[in-house]
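>> received
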Amino acid sequence: MKIIPLLAFLLISLSGFSKNKKINQGYWHSEFKLNESAVLPVTFMLEQNKTGISLFIINADESIELKDVIRKKDSIFITFPAFDSELKGKIIRKNQIEGEWCNYAKGEDYKIPFKSINAYIPRFPKLGSTINIYGKWEVTFDYDTDPEKAIGVFDSINYHCSYSKNDVVKGTFLTETGDYRYLEGVVSNDSLYLSTFDGSHAFLFRSKLVGDTLWGDFLSGTHYQTKWYAVRNRDFQLTDPDSLTYLVNNEKIKLSLPDLNNEIYTYPNEATKNKVTLIQIMGTWCPNCLDENKYLAEQKKKFGDQLEIISVTFETQPTLAGKIAKVKKYKQNLDLDYTFLIGGNACKSCAAELFPMLNNIISFPTLIFIDKSQRIRRIHTGFNGPSTGIYYDHFVEKTNRLLETLISEKIN
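>> returned
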């Protein structure tokens, strides 16, 4: 995306709606109120182009384009292309918007208020000298009640515009069920602050270095908060994601589920006979699933009819019709050229019932690799995507090599 300097935008307003209030293009500093003492900062950019209005959400190296923007007089409605959520705003003046983020995947009443002003402002203030937090950390979330291990990786970033006078930090946390995607923030004195917003997650991390340990808290929207700590450990590893989910019996995978035309699709079938097949267990509400879907789309384009991909989705909508409508929109917006089936409601136990040959389903997504003889050759739990850097690169290299091997194999 070509970023035009902010000063060139200051006197330009979006056009095309003569009765609508004017609104500036350019960078917008937005703050989501998670509670009385916690505000999650995010960087937006509003742009007018030949096809209409677009909003870009910028998190470190990621820029998410939202094209479904509707103006109605002093109101603006912005729908996310993949997730079941939207931003509803009131245009107070051309450089100020106030509203709420509605995340329908978590319920009709799940709303977080936000305020936006037309300016580039660093997400967090930077005060004094900085500590060195770059590198790899062994992290423990929720250490008081239900400890969960993770890897923290942090690095500096050459920011996407020249208006930042601060050193911007990027990073993420990897867990055994997936990563926390693109986090952006700053080191200020002895503290590290990170945030991200992608339409599904609104994450805020705050921490302070005490001795050799980062002590912090983590807020996910308005519904979840926990504590964490981290110590440097270059040798720390998580459990191999190919070992977490495994076969417990010799039962073959058999599916009879509604497709997006509400017709029963049965697996295995003639289309999958003598072909390499990937079965993905996912939900459209899941950002890690979205990252995996983008990777799978590349493999489908690469291998074409030699590779069958079946995504079995577990959704939050209460009715089958609602689930189908949501998955159809997801598939269309991401341009995914493979089969989607409706597995049921968004719960791991629901998914486990459909796959009794597995020990458990512990993560969305879970990806099952089946060879031409219908033997399960690999089961990958969770997904650590592009924000994880070398970890994602390793996954891509290993998985590409496996797919090439399976496709080249002769049928027994």
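>> The first strand starts at residue 26 and ends at 33.
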